[in-house]
Amino acid sequence: LAMGNTRAYALRVNLMSMKPHNELASTEYCLANPPWEYLAYLPEGDEVTLDLKSSVGTLAVEWMRPVEGDIFRGGTVSGGAKLNFAAPFAGAAVLYVKKV
Fold this sequence. Notes:
This protein is mainly beta and 100 residues long. 11% of the residues lie in helices and 44% in strands.
């Protein structure tokens, strides 16, 4: 199931432009195409700090349970700084942040 959910994101994001940017996430698991989009993995869930300094403006936030595939909309945030994000559920999580 997790592989299928990973593929679903691979089809939605601009994967060709994303590169490992582990320095941008406190979990050290991050694919990103700054300033446009970021995918961070939280193996234990809980929280992550994401460096969005290069992403000035509004960004949409989305959470996914990597095994179940459940998606939770997280509203929007203003970029331009390091921001803390808390997963809205227990367990492993994927955070997707995209410039709108």
